[in-house]
Every structure is written in C-alpha cells, then in structure tokens.
Design brief:
heterodimer, A: 89 residues, alpha+beta, Alpha-Beta Plaits, four-stranded antiparallel beta sheet, B: mainly alpha
C-alpha cells in the first residue's frame, strides 16, 4: 500500500488566523500528524509559509480543505515522501 | 465546536474583540446617561404619572437600541466587505466560503447586537424600579430617585470596566465616569431649574 509520509507545502495565508492556530488545526486532522510551520515572507496582509507535515498516512485532500477553510491558499507542493509498504497478510 | 467558541473564532479572524468591547462601553454609557438625563428631567418638572415616566423611558430605550443596531450593522457590513475585498485581492482568491467570508457576514450582526443591546439592556435595568412600583412592589426610596441611583451605579460600573480593559486603576476610572454623571446632573439642574 502506498502512503504519504511527508509533505512540504508552500502556502499563502492572511495574518489571521495566527500561525499557532493554523498549525494546530492542521495537526488535528490526523492522530499522529507532526506539523512544522516556517514563515518565509510577510507583507501588509499576508504571510508566505512553508508547511511540513509528517505522519503515518497523510491525506492531502483534508489538508487542502482545512487550508482553504482558514482563508489560505496552497501554492505548491514542494516535497513529497511516499512509502510503498507491503500489505499485511 | 461550541457556539461560543465559533463566535470567538470569528472575532479572532476578523480582529473584532476590541471593537465589540468599545461599542459595549461607549453605547452602554450613552444609554445610561440618556436615561439619567430623562429621569432628572422628570424630577425637575411637575410631578408626572408613573406610567407616563415609564413609557417615556421605555420608548427612549427602544429608540436607543434600534439606533445602535441599525447604524452599527450598516457601517460594519460596508467595512467588512471592504476588508474582505482587500484580502481577496492580496490572496488572489475568493474567500467567500472561508472563515474570513463567514466573519464578514456574521461579525456585523454581532457588533450590531452589542451596539444596540448595550444601551437597551442598561436602560431597562435603570427603569426597573419604576416597573417594580407599577407592579405593586413597595420600595424604600421613591422610584425616580432609585432609578437615578441605578443609573449612577451603571455609569460607575462601566467606568470600572473601562479601567480593567485599559489596565489602569478601576476605582479611579469608575469615579471619573461617576463625575461625568454628576456634572451632567448639575448642568441639567442649572439649565432647567
């Protein structure tokens, strides 16, 4: 079974919600998600972030939905780590 | 998410906690001072029937409430729309379905409720002694004087609240607003008496 283990996303978000809430909201999407946010650029109304998410099986669709719900937009997927694990008998 | 947390989230996203606090205090103060003025006006005039006094005060309270709700809603809708438009230009995306879009639709309602509700509720509390006497309860003090005292207390409490918000001495802040009420009463007596 092929599962996504790590994603690095380029995200543009408004100042609100803040970075802490943003991270926590993404982390709540998966039981074992580890989320690391790094602010790359700031202007009057927006912040450009690099968002790194690690987990046993990351679901990109739910992350995209959460990002849009918070008023942010996903610009690009900069890094993907995918594992192909043998299904258990 | 509980309704209170949802409201808190909308206020955070739109940075509106401050404006809600300001409207609560400013318009609460308007309501309290307007009621105090009305009560003092009745005290310096020929004695009037209690139900006439109550109706005049209630009508004023309702008018203050309606004024607060309508003016705040119209102005906040315009402001929030403008802010959302600016943010959408910066984000180059439609934020209608996001938390920001929901905030732009609902925060004006919240602000309007607070802006109109504050003077209305405070005014109703002030005229409570008048209603109690009309309902048959006997009070130790004449109802108009008691209503005036309640108005003074409300004004003082609003001042204390301001002091807490500004992180200054709430006692001093309460006394300052009480002084404003005293000056208002003095002016009314001076100019009408």
């Amino acid at each position: 079974m092929v599962t996504v283990k790590r994603l690095v996303l380029d995200v543009l978000k408004p100042h609100q919600p803040g970075a802490l809430y943003f991270c926590q909201h993404i982390a709540r999407l998966g039981d074992d998600y580890q989320v690391c946010l790094s602010v790359e650029e700031v202007d009057e109304n927006t912040q450009t972030l690099q968002l790194e998410i690690r987990g046993a099986s990351i679901v990109l669709e739910s992350i995209e939905k959460a990002i849009a719900e918070m008023g942010a937009s996903l610009h690009s997927i900069d890094l993907v780590e995918v594992h192909n694990e043998a299904d258990k008998p | 998410m509980s309704p209170l947390r949802r409201i808190n989230r909308l206020l955070s996203v739109s940075d509106s906690h401050g404006i809600l606090r300001r409207y609560l205090v400013v318009n609460g103060f308007d309501g309290a001072l307007a009621m105090l003025g009305l009560i003092i006006g009745f005290l310096v005039s020929e004695p009037a029937e209690l139900d006439m006094v109550t109706n005049a005060c209630l009508a004023t309270a309702i008018a203050l409430g309606m004024s607060g709700v309508s003016s705040a809603y119209v102005s906040e809708v315009a402001e929030r729309k403008r802010e959302l438009g600016r943010l959408e230009d910066s984000m180059i995306s439609d934020l209608g379905e996001s938390a920001h879009g929901r905030a732009a639709r609902w925060v004006p309602v919240l602000v309007a409720v607070v802006n109109g509700g504050a003077p209305l509720v405070i005014s109703l509390l002030i005229i409570l002694p008048l209603w109690l006497v009309q309902a048959g309860f006997s009070l130790p003090v004449a109802p108009l004087y008691l209503a005036g005292a309640v108005a003074g207390l409300m004004i003082c409490v609003l001042g204390m609240l301001l002091g807490r918000i500004a992180d200054v001495s709430w006692v001093r802040s309460g006394l300052q607003t009480l002084l404003v009420a005293a000056v208002t009463v003095a002016l009314i007596y001076l100019l009408t008496g």
